[in-house]
Amino acid sequence: MATRPLPPEVPTLPRISDYPAYWAARTPDAPAFSGHGRTWAYAEAAAEVDRVAAALWRAGVRPGARVAVLSVPRVEAFVSFLATARLGAIWVGINPRYTVREIGVLLADARPSLIASISDFEGRAFPPDIDAALDATGLWADRPVRVVLGPGEASGYLPWEEFLAAGAEADAGEVGRAVAAVTADQPALIVYTSGTTGTPKGALLRHSGLVRLGIVEAREFRVPPAPRYLGAAPLNHVGGVGDIAGVALVNGGYTAFRDRSDPDTFLDDLRAERISVVFTGPVILIRLAGLIDRTVLPDLEVIGWGGAPLPLATVRTLAEAGFALSTTYGSSEATVSVTYSDADADLETLATTVGRPDPELDVRLRAPDGTWVTDPGVEGEVTLRHPTVAAGYWNREDATAALFTEDGALRTGDIGVFTEDGNLRLVGRISEMFKSGGYNVYPREVELVIESHPHVRSAVVVSRPDPRWQEVGVCFVEPVAGASVDPDHLRDHARTGLANYKVPKDIIVLDTLPLLPNEKVDRQELKRRARALLDR
Ligand code: AMP
After folding, report:
1. Is 262-429 CATH 3.40.50.12780?
2. Is 300 touching ligand 1 by the criterion CB < 6 Å?
3. Is-same-fold flag (262-429; 434-535)?
């Protein structure tokens, strides 16, 4: 694979929200982002961030407050993130695929002082669902300001233009002092993850982490100057805000936002927007491989992926198509990427490892007894140290303490092993979390929803491989004595409380769940049975 030149140096500014003004002063006419037929040059983008920041201030958002935004990947949503961060407040993205129950759980945890939401998408109106979530969680007492983000209206919600116009009355001196006081180590973004209890925890991502991600990922991926990205990934995840729009912004590049990631239009979008760097999960790349090469997409130089491995056959097809390939491994809590593949990594290495650790992160593997693994070939939990990793979980002291080792290394929960040549191979996870179509699914959350059905005594969700989504959930259900459970009915029940990617693909009713001698459910046995479904 050709070795590409390093991209030009970009300075490490203290805050992610410093970059719009930085580029507005240098390349005011260069495009910053686009969506719904409009393009914002950097000068306009920086002014828009300031306008939204003033409006947020006027609406009562103060440093440390949370701003929750339910939106597809839209320019206004990303601008609202930068504006929130600029004030020293913390932005929380909510995925439009969430049900009322899921929205309520996040709002109850984040307790935002302002909620902005798109009015509707694909036939669903969101303000009534947000209000239902506020009803269910008793959050009206917090008096959150409600705003429609972008076009549309809703009862009780400020229209976007009215919200923006009111910002003209904000005290510019106050806003300026708040902006100046924001430090690099402050959180800018909350990304929710779940974990073993099924209750979401909000990882607090710092300005410095998002900035470092932008600098180092561009360098390691060898992205061209002013890279052009497609912003179709959800904005409630570090991938959409950090690895895509964030990396583009830090490097003076451009993000073309799209309402959703659609495999059927992805290729046309790449061509129409002259995208130079693709960063995505494996599902889309598996579909694109064989359809694209440098003649179909002359502007596309780099294809990067993360979140899950890419099959060797896909890696080979994309390499033969003439693209520079890069893979990376990171997590919301790490914020920055932990490893990157070498520019000249061979195909096998790209498909079976996540590359080499970023040398500044002190990446080390930890054995279950707490000692450090030093030899290649020996498994351990991946840990790392850096001042830019997550500041912990919002309002969750216990979970924050458990996120770090006694001596302060961040625990990823991933089990890895170093190869002889220093690349990291991921071999498993400590938690039961799995990835379906690029989305994290936490089995305990799914089990709790299924167990809320009166006929279910106990539910256990495990994953099995799936040709289309990489992994899908299989739910084993033990009914309460004497009750009968219909899997289709149970699936409908699950749909009322879970986003569609979390709903188990198979629901299997068993008289009793298999138990280990210690009376815990034998998950390994269930995993074997789930896998057998695929072979069937
Ligand atoms: P998230 O916090 O949603 O970004 O998920 C992070 C998790 O995704 C990591 O802890 C890993 O388990 C997994 N992951 C990230 N990148 C990769 C990769 N390149 N290959 C395999 N698993 C990955």
Report:
1. yes
2. no
3. no
